[in-house]
């Protein structure tokens, strides 16, 4: 009998759309002072609704495993111009600035962002399907410098396997490039078990074996959704 994780990755999704997604997705990662993480989360819980009125939040997470004292949020925009307008509106939102940005700023030690585009056909989608609590795994791959055309060509083909726990796959546009990111959802971290995610994927998917052969590095982050995250 296969393990729950193997079953999770071995079931192909027929519901994934293969049409190109014109939207862009911004991953924003903030490093928080270790002695101020609780304060930052409480401030966000009370005031982050002010930000949600400006654009669509896909998910907001604390990093539980892999890179501590950090938060990661994922935003969806219709285009770069849409993002520009949202950022301009935020800069003029006095309530947002005074009630959240100014109190949060001393608690943050660093910020990075990456802008990504979806890889069609990979993942079950980012719309919440239930409100049950879950954990998430973000896998990021830095590709070999000359391999991106080959990788993107390979990913245009119908996936030989589409993990049922994978919500989406993206390619990097700005940030660390060339790169790929994928977001996975599990009921608990224990479901992943002692075998690494790569071991399970490599035994079941020639496509992901191909990706590994064209990757310089692979990083896994274990994420917990915050109360105000769209994905739970």
Keywords:
8 strands, Alpha-Beta Plaits, globular, 232 residues, alpha+beta, 29% helix, disordered N terminus, 8-stranded antiparallel barrel
Explain this structure to me?
- This protein is an alpha+beta fold and 232 residues long.
- Helix content is 29%, strand content 32%.
- It contains eight helices and eight strands; from the N terminus they run H-E-H-H-E-E-H-H-E-E-H-E-E-H-H-E.
- It has helices at residues 4-10, 37-47, 49-52, 80-91, 94-104, 148-155, 197-202, 206-213, and strands at residues 24-32, 56-65, 70-77, 108-118, 135-143, 166-174, 179-186, 215-225.
- An eight-stranded antiparallel barrel has the order 1-3-2-8-5-7-6-4.
- Helix 2 (37-47) runs antiparallel to helix 5 (94-104).
- Residues 1-16 have low confidence and may be disordered.
- Residues 25-118 form the NIPSNAP domain.
- This is NIPSNAP domain-containing protein.
- One of its GO terms (cellular component) is mitochondrion.
Order of helices and strands: HEHHEEHHEEHEEHHE
Distance between the termini: 29 Å
Using the CA coordinates, give the radius of gyration: 18 Å
Q: Biggest sheet, strands in spatial order? A: 1-3-2-8-5-7-6-4
What is the count of structural domains? Answer: 1
- The averaged pLDDT comes out at 86
Question: Oligomeric form of this entry?
Answer: single chain
Estimate the global geometry from the Cα principal axes.
globular
Question: What is the tally of helical segments?
Answer: 8
The CATH architecture comes to 2-Layer Sandwich
Just give the CATH class: Alpha Beta
Tell me the fraction of residues in β-strands, as a range: 25-35%
What percent of the residues sit in helical stretches (DSSP H or I)? Answer: 25-40%
How many strands? 8
Derived structural class: alpha+beta
Poorly predicted parts? 1-16
Here the CATH topology equals Alpha-Beta Plaits
What about the largest sheet? 8 strands, antiparallel, barrel
